Amino acid sequence: xxxxxxxxxxxxxxxxxxxxxxxxxxxxxxxxxxxxxxxxxxxxxxxxxxxxxxxxxxxxxxxxxxxxxxxxxxxxxxxxxxxxxxxxxxxxxxxxxxxxxxxxxxxxxxxxxxxxxxxxxxxxxxxxxxxxxxxxxxxxxxxxxxxxxxxxxxxxxxxxxxxxxxxxxxxxxxxxxxxxxxxxxxxxxxxxxxxxxxxxxxxxxxxxxxxxxxxxxxxxxxxxxxxxxxxx
Length: 232
Known about the structure:
This protein has helices at about 1-20, 210-230; strands at about 25-30, 45, 55, 60, 65-70, 75-80, 90-95, 100-115, 120-125, 135-140, 150-155, 160, 165-170, 180, 200-210. It is an alpha+beta fold. Strand 5 (about 65-70) and strand 6 form a beta hairpin. Helix 1 (about 1-20) packs antiparallel against helix 2.
């Protein structure tokens, strides 16, 4: 009986060791900084320090029909509409290396609309996993004249392989409202104001895709554990 238990434990340990050999690293996956000293840009380049297993496109906007607002520290656009329009959005695309799984935790950023009066705008986050059909997150700004910090939970997307595109839409109550990403970091427009805001960061971890052998051993080990408990 002891020898049988030893074999079961050895099989379970071997399976867990192989399965646990996957690498995991929780950190910034992709980041974008909004320029502090120039304005009028239609795209944002990725910054260094992201996950090397994920390649990301620059963040771009559909210009036209959106129109860029020329102001440092802000990546905002005019010509949004009262409802989500399929041709008006900001987007970025991630491609995960073969053999790797991307698990996103959250997305941190700040948004702002202008003018700071009347009804507030709403921001929407969607992805290609459902063809941009539904919001992962949406929220309406509540405080006039302030940059709004936001953390969007992306863990609901699960493990991602291959390619995923994110799109950001704004809906505005009336024409003439500028809406998008913004901060008031020192050195740019709004620098020194108390509502500092933040740049754009996708956070999560990268793991290896489990090999079929590892998965099979995990299954065998699991069956052995079940049989052991039944025979106990």
